Amino acid sequence: MTATLPSPRHTDLHDAPVLRWGVLAPGVIAHDWVDSVARHTSQRIVAVGSRSLERAQAFADKHGAAHAYGSYAKLVQDAEVDVIYIASPHSEHESHALLAIAAGKHVLVEKPIATSAAGAQRIADAARAAGVFAMEAMWTRYRPQSDVVRQVLEAGTLGDIRLVTADFGGLAPVDPTSRLWDPALAGGALLDLGVYPVSWASFVLGSPTGVLASGDLAPTGVDRQAAMILTHDGGAQAVLTTGLTARTPEASVIAGSEGRLEIPSPFWFADDVRLFDGTGDLVDTWHDPFGRVARESLCCEAVALARYVGEGRTESPLHSLDETIAVMATLDEARRQLG
Ligand SMILES: NC(=O)c1ccc[n+]([C@@H]2O[C@H](COP(=O)([O-])OP(=O)(O)OC[C@H]3O[C@@H](n4cnc5c(N)ncnc54)[C@H](OP(=O)(O)O)[C@@H]3O)[C@@H](O)[C@H]2O)c1
Fold first, then answer.
1. Fewer CB atoms inside 10 Å of the end CB: C or N, the chain?
2. What is the pLDDT tens value at each position of the chain, 339 positions in all?
3. Whose CA is nearest to atom 7 of ligand 1?
4. CA of 190 relative to ligand 1 center, distance in Å
5. What order do you get walking across the sheet with 134-137 strand by strand?
6. Is there a domain that residue 27 lies in?
7. DSSP code of 214?
């Protein structure tokens, strides 16, 4: 193999129409997301809505948003907002997305877009009917690393892809009041972390024809550990693991008949991609030159969305709503098998 790894495209984070963003639910990820967007892009954060006016005002003061609202309903009515970033717990994504779409806003919905394929379908149906843009905030898709992988896959460098492995497991102390462990907030490893490896496998192999899942439930009733084998037309497999009980390797391998890629930990925001030839020799390594470490690169998805809206699109060309629904269907089946 003489191939080398390509450079990512679309890396200018200021090269997109400037949209006016409203943030719905100012929790942990909303702070990190806004920090990243403000630091690296020209996008404008103009408003925030919380269930508490005090929390909204504190967030607005910290991040320089002009408008703070004590309800999500008031936020989505703000005529100066183009797009709503929805950062509430999983259980609330669907109703909050539908609220924003009904007000005519574009939506970027934190992962997982809903708690089931049916919920994701309802968001897609509403967005399509309203003619607004809707996208799951699966930020990995929009990072430079994924464009390197995408180009390798498109070029067929790896030959016939036979196996994808991916893992995302963290150690979260059991706390029934935390959204991670609370069934009422759609907690559990599969929806919170497992969505990353399942979406990654879908990115490489498309939708599976079979899902085999095994795992374990926590005393609160949510899934705390799971392994999945996804099968695809032609026999390719994805072997995916997730959990809340241990710090696991969090890496990914994409193996084909002519070579393989290794994406080191943490694969969903890795800074390296390694290409090996069919004999197992390391051929090339791509190292992210942009230096936006960890959640600093959350902004890539915001810029991608702004670019797509500017192009008149209503869905992400890199992650369609139908694919997002199919990923949720895989998670539905895994969760059903885990009971
Ligand atoms: N992309 C990533 O890397 C990443 C990382 C972490 C989390 N996430 C996703 O982001 C979402 C939020 O996660 P987070 O860790 O930021 O959660 P969090 O800190 O608990 O924040 C969620 C916010 O949602 C609001 N909320 C609305 N209804 C609620 C309810 N019934 N119970 C509790 N809070 C409610 C609350 O804000 P107000 O009450 O002030 O409105 C709360 O601060 C999740 O879907 C998660 O999967 C993504």
1. C
2. 768 999 999 889 999 999 999 999 999 999 999 999 999 999 999 999 999 999 999 999 999 999 999 999 999 999 999 999 999 999 999 999 999 999 999 999 999 999 999 999 999 999 999 999 999 999 999 999 999 999 999 999 999 999 999 999 999 999 989 999 999 999 999 999 999 999 999 999 999 999 999 999 999 999 999 999 999 999 999 999 999 999 999 999 999 999 999 999 999 999 999 999 999 999 999 999 887 888 999 999 999 999 999 999 999 999 999 999 999 999 999 999 999
3. 29
4. 16
5. 67-69, 44-49, 20-24, 83-86, 106-110, 134-137
6. no
7. E
Check pocket membership of 27 for ligand 1, CB cut-off 6 A. yes
Centre of ligand 1 to C-alpha 88, Å, is: 4
In angstroms, the Cα distances linking 233 to 48, 107, 162, 205, 319 are 45, 33, 11, 9, 20
Query: How far, in Å, are 90, 174, 189, 335 from residue 180 at the CA level?
Result: 10, 9, 8, 15
In a domain, 162, yes or no: yes
Q: Which of 23, 24, 29 to mutate to test the pocket of ligand 1 (most atoms within 8 A of CB)?
A: 29
Q: Is residue 80 part of a domain?
A: no
Number of domains making up the chain: 1
Is there a domain that residue 132 lies in? no
Domain containing 332: what range?
157-291+318-338
* Ligand 1 lined by 184 (C-beta under 6 Å): no
